[in-house]
Amino acid sequence: MSAKKWLRQWGLMFFICLSIVGIVNYVIDPQYIFKNYTIYRGQLDVRFSKVNYLKENNGIYNSYMMGSSRIGTTHPSSVEKYERNKKFYNFWIGGANLGDILVHLKYFIKEKYSIKTLYIQVGLQNMKSVSYDVRAHPEVLDNSLYIFYIKNLFSVFYDAVFLKLFPSENDINLIEMEINNGYFKFINRDLLIESNKGNYVHIEDSFKLNNKRSVHFTTKKDFGIILFELNKLCRKNNIKLITFVTPHNKVMMDSYVLEDYFEFLRVLSKYNSFYDFSGYNSVTTNNYNYYESSHYLPKVGELISARIFGDETIFIPKDFGFLVTNKNIEGYLDSKRSNISEYELKK
Amino acid sequence: MLFNSYQFILLFLPIVFFVYFYLNSKRLTEVGKYFLVFSSLFFYSWWNVGYLFLIIISMIFNYSVGSALGRRVLILGFGERVRKSFLIVGVISNISLLVYFKYSDFLIVNINFLIGNNIELLNLALPLAISFFTFQQIAYLVDSYRGETTEYNFLNYALFVTFFPQLIAGPIVHHKEMMPQFSRKQTKIINYRNIVSGIFIFSIGLFKKVVIADSFAVYATSGFDIATSLNLFEAWISSLSYTFQLYFDFSGYTDMAVGLALLFNIRLPLNFNSPYKATNIQDFWRRWHVTLSRFLRDYVYIPLGGSRVSSYRIYFNLMTTFILGGIWHGAGWTFIFWGALHGGALVVHRLWCELGIRLWAWLAWLITINFINIAWIFFRAREWGDAVKVLNAMFSLDDICLPSSLFFLFKFMPEYGVKFGDWLSAIDGDKITVLMILLGFSLVLLFSNSMQQLNNLKINYKSSIYSVIMFIVSFFMINDNSIFLYFNF
Q1: Interface ipTM
Q2: Interface contact A13-B463, CB threshold 8 A
Q3: Alpha helices, DSSP H only, in A82-157?
Q4: How far is B216 from chain A (nearest CA, A)?
Q5: CA distance B382 to chain A (A)
Q6: pLDDT profile of chain A (347 residues), mean per 10
Q7: Rounded to whole angstroms, how far apart are CA atoms B112 and B115?
Q8: Threshold 0.80, pTM exceeds
């Protein structure tokens, strides 16, 4: 075979494969990139989809809920009912930390989105990492949109293609997101909980994990810098900032080194007052409030907003949610210390 | 711009290739060279245009000093001492540049520690490829001083330093092996055989980087940077994953560089020759990053006296050479320690050889690969604490966890503190991880390496299909955020 023929054959095979993958990706659109949808189901690129949607529709909203997927199960109406004349969008993004939130807030401000209130959920995962996720929408990072499209056109997403063609009834983590309000549902988990709540809690493996306290607060310096910048941006742009710490399930709480966790809360209080729902309380120690050890049920999101906005018409356990400021932090941590000691003794 | 990026593969490379050969076909060979230098500088400045100035100034300086030394223009009538002074000034200037950008913060931290001062860090961004282009140009100065350079043309020199396939992470090339190739007539004509070879080896390199190295990277990153504690198996898998990641990453980059150079009818020197098949540490350094070893041998070890001195002096020379090799890789005590470990191992190997005892090949290999694997831990760890964390877990029997599926076979184990359950959770691993480690061993031990495959390449359907499969799989898995490990050095 001549070298020229080898090259022709090589080029032809490459072109054929490239075309097939490109066509499949464009037609099936496994990551929901190339067309607009109202309902997103399966493996979606949440960062891209939401930023893309808001590019066209940001005028509808003037307030945002931000955080990781944990805040994603809270419907915007849970907050809107307390903040009159404000239209919230649930801008949860998978695995988001404060760095992610800051990057997106900067983008919203740069694009002149109207922002009256920012309702931010801060998870303890920030103790380990606060750098933004590099998968953000290319325009948020000032990168080329064309390269992003090429990458998505010519990458192979086996699982996502399969899931979009054959949405599995058995996939327990299958989610569905409504793009016009941003929140998501666990379709199959909701069905299981509805049919037999007790059995669900019994069979869910993540509730049985036996974590060791090994997660340290390694991001202290960067965490402070991001909080400082976030507050500065909100003050400068007249944005009302509401911050709360996630009610992590007890199993997850068991993985944090206690003194580091207290230091995390201390640093947070230096920059702004916040509502703390973390620790061991009536909600976090009850698995019936959770899908698994990471995500809480929508009803917990309702309790959080009720506490923050002082709604006395809803029953909220007394030990769930406290306003923490830089003035009361040390006393608060002392009571938290004794509360945790008591909990660990009872365990 | 990365070799494993869409911008490079779909835009930069085709444009540079076709324009370069078009210019040559129109007999505009000098314009073609200017174009290649310009394209290489564009490729370099894609990361940070600010450092373009630095590399240009460095080239002008070294070319001026080198050609003066070689042509003996300025030296006439001044004698050997003046020539030597000239060389010393040239070498010190290059090293100063490297020290300023790469080692100043490391020095400040240590000075602060020693004298209890609080001098502020400079926090300089490391100019890409500075270690590579500095070494390459120091070699040029020394060769010029020795009268081993013959051609003095700034355009050719600029191409020798900036030629984009080898600019960022080597191989570290010699002036004398590149300049004649740039001047050859055949270099300026499209050679289909070389294009086939180039695409073939580039595809292998891309596959090694994108598919293999980046897969191992997940476990190495989890084990070294994310996990706060590791059990026995997690620690071994983390360290072995990095051992494989580094090899497939760097040798993959070299394969791509060799392939790209071949498209332009340039042959780059061999840089890897199945290093993990080595049965002793000396053998390893003849197979790993060959062009760096060559540089250290020719410009550090031999000038120090090499092996033609007393035994103690040889040991000193070996230690010095390898500690310098460690420092070259990075500004940190972990790199220095890694260099010292290898220097020490070479001394031990020398002493062992003097005893004349021979080991079984399999045992020699086992000792060598374990030493290399353990030494890489210091090379990889960001801090001492990370290295100690991995090492402690590798050699401690306090935390052993096995998969639950093995419980029925080893029911008695819990009595000895062995747990059953999530045995690889700290590194996000599972059964596939173990298979990958086995696959890693089989790839480095049982198969011919990419350069051997290139040398035995037959132009037929089989090689075409083999190459296109590797290229396509890699192309579809390209991750824009995955840079090559050696870009950091």
Answers
A1: 0.83
A2: no
A3: 98-110, 145-153
A4: 19
A5: 14
A6: 92 93 90 81 83 92 94 94 92 90 94 95 86 78 85 81 76 86 91 90 81 78 91 94 95 88 94 94 94 93 95 92 94 93 84
A7: 6
A8: no
